[in-house]
Amino acid sequence: MRNPKKGMTLIVKEVTRLTVGLIFLFGIYIMLHGHLTPGGGFAGGVIIALSFIHIVLAYGGDFASRKMNLQTATFLESLGGLMFLLLALLGLIFTGVFFLNLLPHGTPFELKSAGIIPLCNIAICIKVGAGLFLVFILLTTFRPGGDK
Amino acid sequence: MEYITLTEADQLIPLMIFMIIGSIVALEIKDMLSSVIAMGAVGVGVTISFLILKAPDLAITQLVVEILCLILLVRATIKREMYFPRKHVDYLRIISALVLIFVFLVFSYAALRGLPQFGMPIMKVASEYISRGIRETGATNMVASIILDYRGYDTLIEASILFTAVLGVSVVLRAVGRIRNEKS
Amino acid sequence: MIYFLCLVFFCVGLYGILVKRNLIKIIIGMSILDYSVNLFLVLTGYRMGGRAPIYDKTQEVKNMVDPIPQALVLTAIVIGLAVLALMIAIAVRLYEKYGTYDITEIRKLRG
Fold it and tell me: Which residues contact B47 (CB under 8 A, 6 or more apart)?
């Protein structure tokens, strides 16, 4: 990175300010409709991670750490993993079969259908997004030989 | 006027030849930035192949994963000195690798006769999943219902693999200056 | 014929791992190997005249392509990304310690 603290030129900053919210919204859309249209939790999570990486690349590490920093990302990643495990254990607690699809199925082609699948998509999205953003931050703020 | 229709096999063969040439270019070229960009072209070729083979889930995921791969590779190669002095070419290594690849290709050509013909798969388990899928799960996307309901264990273990990879990155890139500063 | 081209694609990646001296070229070779295996798995599940495995509200979908290889490859793509991230982290660390990406030099300076 040329100078990861400062960021890029003015044109890049203005265009980023206009488009990064739309990228985040698109990622949430792909994730939520994962049981109706192609996409799902993995693609939505990677798109959300890319939107945060976009902010870091355009504005520099100092400014972007106010939006999402290292501690928040580690907390969110653990939260996503635990949420997925909790959803799987709900089947064990209530009926005795691990990972059973126990919420009501509803009618097809609705947003609120298919039992446990949309909630699993949300958990996977949070985990994958936070994990990949964490990998990027660790690789770019690596300083050898001393400071944390 | 008659339209010329191409079958899927006709559409895929030039694309695969493009990907093979692109990957050879990515491995042989001396400039590192051009090599990374050629790798990006190969990844976009794989995305288009997934679209031709009627797999839209995979095409979306492969495209965004390819973009992230490019970002990580550029991070590793920018501002790094790549000067390699011209050493003696190790012929034994190249010849033995080519012999291995030739033997592998010969045996695999014989082994590929056992696969069913391209375009007519034996869908024993998949026909069960398709016929009972929408009644038992309620999701209209078959792939999502398979990875989250019928084969949910695989997704659980995959989440833990991702967690282990992030853990490994954070352990490898730890700051090591502390112990040396404490000793001196 | 298409399967054989896919295996040639696999062999290009294998050649990159075995022969090249630059560490980044080895990593690119392993990534090419990963793409070729994913493509091979999806190729075995294609059905002539089939449609994407998603139900549609307006029309009836009769013959679908095989959805099981697609479900397995979806996970494999993200795992390939995680492995690539770990390899790049190790490569960056090696460069900071030894000053070069040449594996013959790294083998000489032990410790």
Answer: B59, B62, B63, B66
